[in-house]
Design a protein that fits this description.
The protein has about 400 residues and is mostly beta strands. It contains four helices and 21 strands. It starts with a strand and ends in an 11-residue tail after the last strand.
Length: about 400
């Protein structure tokens, strides 16, 4: 359970401060873009910096992690937004059609290294808790293009078709409806990652995927398919559907997702001696089924200043996601390869009964005409008590209770 708030200034309105860079870096339909996010963080109980995607573990207090008790004071990265660099393509090719594409990768601006959550997990295997550094599972695992890498075509009358490595429909949706815009430092949806991957963080971005999007008036819809495979976040096929409406200040979307063979890298503190000796990451393999409903409404308050254009706005957000995880319908091999080429030892019977969890969130954003904005949000997660592992040490299943445990936030 948590309440968080943030303030941002998009434009301080100081005329004497001129931006030396052009508004866009575009040539012949190709735009180069990037973000560098560096800040300061203090934690009363945390871990030293590691290779995690967000550089620091911004949400250390939950039911599955034990922390060192250290106070951490440090520069950190990607607190508000993922630091990245990329290229976007949008070029007309005639008859109303446009060629589109996007390539981007996330990096740590403090070290210059590509984001590699899998390495951050692997580096801590076998270490006592007091010696572990920040770590976390993610679909960004050191790939040259760990964000998205897709191309396609778009037409106002026929919709948009893209192919490649793409955000899941669920990740796209929560990015739109999260009040904190998936900020690693402030948003549970951003730093946790499970909602965007429909239960499995590794599956937040689908490789080998096809996505089709269509809009007619205020109504829009989308469908997505991936055949998964080696070196991805899902070993089997995946499909998802989205439908929504935008009318005046109201926006509502619903998403349904089904994933087969999703990779869930286990918490390194739960590895047994044999798994530590093997040196591989260990992953529960699951079939995930998710549905979600989310919306927002924007109130135009008016009263804008002459030099700033439109007036102030208030946007209200709310969302709900239901996730159901079960053992895979098709067992994975004893070892498999996930994002970034990392070898994982697989477990195909981690869920003797379904693991069910729900995400709830709500919030509000007040945007001033001057460019300042203020945001507050509340996040909550519930998980059922399910029967886990049927291995030799827990034959018949062990209870894995986490019923209505609140998700706590950093002070």
């Amino acid at each position: 359970m948590g309440c968080v708030s943030a303030a941002q200034a998009a434009d301080l309105g100081v005329d004497s401060l001129k931006d030396p860079l052009p508004d866009t870096l575009t040539y012949q339909g190709v735009t180069v873009y990037g973000t560098i996010d560096v800040g300061y963080a203090y934690q009363t109980n945390g871990r030293p910096l590691g290779g995690i995607v967000s550089n620091l573990e911004y949400i250390p207090f939950n039911a599955t992690r034990n922390f060192t008790g250290q106070s951490i004071s440090t520069l950190t990265a990607s607190g508000l937004q993922q630091s990245n660099i990329g290229v976007k393509i949008e070029e007309g090719i005639g008859l109303g059609w446009t060629a589109i594409g996007k390539l981007d990768t996330g990096f740590n601006p403090l070290t210059g290294e590509l984001d590699d959550g899998c390495r951050s997990m692997k580096e801590n295997i076998g270490k006592p808790v007091s010696q572990q550094t920040s770590s976390g599972d993610t679909s960004r695992c050191g790939q040259a293009l760990n964000g998205v890498a897709y191309g396609g075509v778009s037409n106002a009358a026929y919709g948009t078709l893209t192919v490649g490595r793409q955000n899941s429909l669920q990740l796209d949706a929560i990015g739109t409806y999260d009040p904190m815009a998936l900020s690693y430092a402030f948003s549970f949806l951003g730093v946790n990652g499970a909602d965007g991957g429909s239960g499995s963080t590794q599956a937040a971005r689908w490789d080998n995927s096809v996505k089709y999007q269509y809009a007619y008036g205020p109504v829009h819809a989308a469908a997505m398919y991936s055949n998964g495979g080696e070196d991805t976040g899902t070993l089997g096929t995946d499909y998802a559907f989205n439908a929504g409406i935008n009318y005046k200040g109201l926006s509502v979307d619903g998403v349904y997702t089904k994933e087969h063979g999703a990779v869930n890298i286990k918490n390194i503190d739960s590895y047994n001696a044999a798994q530590i000796a093997a040196g591989n990451l260990v992953a529960n393999i699951s079939d995930d089924e998710t549905w979600s409903l989310m919306g927002k409404y924007t109130f135009e308050l008016g009263g804008g200043f002459k030099d700033y254009g439109p007036g102030d706005k208030v946007t209200l957000f709310a969302g709900y996601t239901h996730v159901n995880q079960t053992n895979p319908s098709s067992a994975a091999p004893l070892t498999a390869v996930t994002n970034g080429g990392y070898v994982v030892s697989t477990i195909n019977d981690a869920f003797q009964t379904a693991k069910v969890f729900d995400f709830y969130w709500t919030g509000a954003k007040y945007a001033l005409a001057s460019g300042w904005s203020f945001t507050g949000a509340y996040y909550h997660a519930d998980q059922n008590s399910y029967v886990a592992d049927s291995g030799p040490c827990t034959k018949g299943g062990a209870s894995a209770s986490l019923n209505r445990v609140p998700i706590k936030r950093m002070p």
